Amino acid sequence: MATQQRVGVIGLGAMGMGMAQSLRRAGHLVNVFDVRIEVAHKFAAKGGVACSSLEEIAKNSDVLVSVVVNAAQTESVLFGDGSAHSACAHHLKSGSVFVMCSTVDPAFSVGLEKKLNDKGLLYIDAPISGGAAKAAAGQMTMMTAGSPAAYEKAEVFLNAMAGKVYKLGGSAGAGSKVKIINQLLAGVHIAAAAEAMALGLREGVDAEALYEVITHSAGNSWMFENRMAHVLAADYTPLSAVDIFVKDLGLVLDMARATKFPLPLSSTAHQMFMQASTAGFAKEDDSAVIKIFPGIELPKGKSN
């Protein structure tokens, strides 16, 4: 039975921790690994197993969920430096499923599926969206693509982690393409929200009043409502950093460039995040893209 399969989670960041908690809450015994071993032990203190190495988690997982930052980290998790045998692909047993949740170039995901299939391993392309709170509640969205055999083994775990599991194709690539389109919209909406708030500040409009009106008007977006609240609070703690959108909008443009498809808004938004990054805001919350606008005084937060 699928429920007897063993599950592992690699990467206990804002999303990965919530996903592991959702699996545990659903009654699964969850193996976890993070380079910050103390974070893994903190999770395991409430149930689960903290693995000390990639080799250990791979040997003890039939379905392995990877929630690392990017393609390079995914490659490292699976194959190490190409010569080391401590990475996961060397120790997953034949027929195991690798679930890849990072936002990557779709071509990378297609190639990864082939590499793993050649080793007798199954693969699900499964980028995620929704933020840390939805991940912790088991209500995030997964944009997945994979073979029927992979779904048969992994579906019970996918459903435990996500409120919506979209099946977008029978092989890798479709999930990553849909996620990249989502990131196009997210990045452009954040950039537009910052531009609108910056213009309001420049024109002397009360920031709180502007936020109240826009969030109850047709011009509102989820990103304006969420990210401009960070600006009003002067809280640039990186829930999603500026450099995430340097990367993700870069992937958007790369995908479109391959077929010579024009993306004027995405290109402009990417340049805005690049400017914010090089200005010293790379690790701040992505709402810090508003800091590129000259001649405005940003809110200082109610506590100041």
What does this structure look like?
The structure is a single chain. By secondary structure, the protein is of the alpha/beta class. The protein folds into two domains: 2-170, Rossmann fold (3-Layer(aba) Sandwich); 177-292, Orthogonal Bundle (N-(1-d-carboxylethyl)-l-norvaline Dehydrogenase, domain 2). It is 49% helix and 12% strand. The chain contains twelve helices and nine strands. The protein has helices at residues 14-25, 37-44, 54-59, 71-79, 106-118, 131-136, 148-161, 174-202, 207-214, 222-232, 242-257, 264-281; strands at residues 7-10, 30-33, 49-50, 63-66, 97-100, 122-125, 128-129, 140-146, 162-167. Strands 1, 2, 3, 4, 5, 6, 7, 8 and 9 form a nine-stranded mixed sheet that branches. Strand 1 (7-10), helix 1 (14-25) and strand 2 (30-33) form a beta-alpha-beta unit. Helix 8 crosses helix 11 (242-257), helix 9 runs antiparallel to helix 10 and helix 11 (242-257) packs antiparallel against helix 12. The longest helix has 29 residues, at 174-202.
Main structural class: alpha/beta
- In angstroms, what separates the terminal alpha carbons? 57 Å
According to CATH, the homologous superfamily of the largest domain is NAD(P)-binding Rossmann-like Domain
CATH topology of the largest domain: Rossmann fold
> Helix count, per DSSP?
12
Main sheet characteristics:
9 strands, mixed
Binned strand content: 5-15%
Instruction: Identify the CATH class of the largest domain.
Output: Alpha Beta
Anisotropy-based shape: globular
Contiguous runs where pLDDT drops below 50 for at least 5 residues: none
